[in-house]
């Protein structure tokens, strides 16, 4: 028998406040009007909620990663249009998704994609009932493009707007395809950024059965394809699947991940390492495209692809078998398991999971491949589902400035940071930067009571974080001094201009971490913020010149982090606090253990999953400090428990701002 504590509650939506990106879409339950509402009450509530939710027509917009998509869907399930613009060429050029380049690509095509979706549906904006748009999780820079477009349309035509969770949309699109699919059901959502097993009890009510603890299966497919020199224009999954048909799946004995763990979580980081070592042992040169490889070389690559795919999918099978057992004990009426997300378009994945599901007496439902990958249809349909329940927001102002899009209703709104300068060798704010600022906002009350005299940022980049911290404290009259360091002289220059544009004074120093400041600042820093180079890379990239130094973290992404920790311990005052961004691959529990040995307690302030990674912002403070988190076990053994405690019930997100 399993214990209820085995399951964590899922809050799909990362807290908003992406950098000038997401609106905090307030969930309001509006009663259906019994009499006509004045035109001023936004488009007669979209024609009195489409005559009491009869015929709804919703435009869905999706820009969470590298596909720009839009679709128009009718509430009877009719797909009126379905348009997707791919960034395949960029994927090849950069070997994956480059957030800033992806944002620019979205911006260039978003108007055309949306207009094409309307034209193909033979509709204009005036024919719509509402606009639905993905608001997370995803790449903040990319999400912003879709949100801004949706809000412009909704504001200009007085339409309700519906914020959609990306992973929920992947799960619910199956209800568009299979009319008999009713709650409760099990869903496996597999993509480049996510592995998620959930029990869907009702609309907006989901219990997380398992998730990835490091890399998702789609990421493993993509990396394998890249290392094998495959054509990335179709993305890594289809390329590996096709090549695997030529190979012997038993030729290489890769081990199945997490065999000793009797839960439903996933891990693909170790399998990736096994694949990389196999490729190195066979001396495969990824710079030689598969199309130019010799017959022998091609066969070696095919064997690796087939062996990898066999183990990757076996891992899925094992976890799904256990999840079905758990879910049926909670909800014996379950009849279906939904498999969706980009990886669900893989025929081998479908075939193997179909056998698993049938063995348990259930039926497998997979959306067609074009609705498994990111698309506007799933967003529009999920919008329809929530609109029927009265879960939508009123239209934004018709003339809403773009820099007002990132309002945050539950936390004090961070000042809108204007990046007045940039440089190709300077890291621009991205999801990790936004997460760090959101963590500071989440801890704002404690920070103001803390009244730090000296604040320091190590690795200031564009100046976004140190400027946000200064403005947050300054709004309440807290007088602090600020120091920021960076090894990149271009970063220091950009930070200087960012600070100047916002009227913030800070001492900027070009140095490696805090070299040369050890004596001067010893025991004086009250608040330190660090977004370190945490990406696992070859060691020879650590400390490289230019922008590479902002992300190259060496083995496990820990090389620079492990140098920063003792420096932080030396510089922090007796009441000093450290806020640090970490990646799952960095082994945050081990980082907490190291700091515990130095006398620091710790807690996670923000945990956020994106299409690319799972981020944690951890706060450290000396154990004798009076600031203690009463809700969490601060021991090392309690770290994982605390992490799970950060993931509350999904329904609380849906209803957190409801009027009902």
From TrEMBL:
One of its GO terms (cellular component) is nucleus. It catalyses: L-threonylcarbamoyladenylate + adenosine(37) in tRNA = N(6)-L-threonylcarbamoyladenosine(37) in tRNA + AMP + H(+). Keywords: Acyltransferase, Metal-binding, Methyltransferase, Mitochondrion, Nucleus, S-adenosyl-L-methionine, Transferase, Transit peptide, tRNA processing. InterPro entries: ATPase_NBD (IPR043129), DNA_methylase_N6_adenine_CS (IPR002052), Gcp-like_dom (IPR000905), KAE1/TsaD (IPR017861), PrmC-related (IPR004557), SAM-dependent_MTases_sf (IPR029063), Small_mtfrase_dom (IPR007848), TsaD (IPR022450). GO terms for molecular function: metal ion binding; nucleic acid binding; S-adenosylmethionine-dependent methyltransferase activity; tRNA N(6)-L-threonylcarbamoyladenine synthase activity. Binds 1 divalent metal cation per subunit. Its cofactor is a divalent metal cation. Residues 450-581 form the Methyltransferase small domain. GO terms for biological process: methylation; tRNA threonylcarbamoyladenosine modification. CDD domains: AdoMet_MTases, ASKHA_NBD_OSGEPL1_QRI7_euk. Its main location: mitochondrion. It comes from the Eukaryota. HAMAP family: TsaD. Homodimer. Belongs to the eukaryotic/archaeal PrmC-related family. Belongs to the KAE1 / TsaD family. This is Glycoprotease 1. It comes from Lupinus angustifolius. The gene is GCP1.
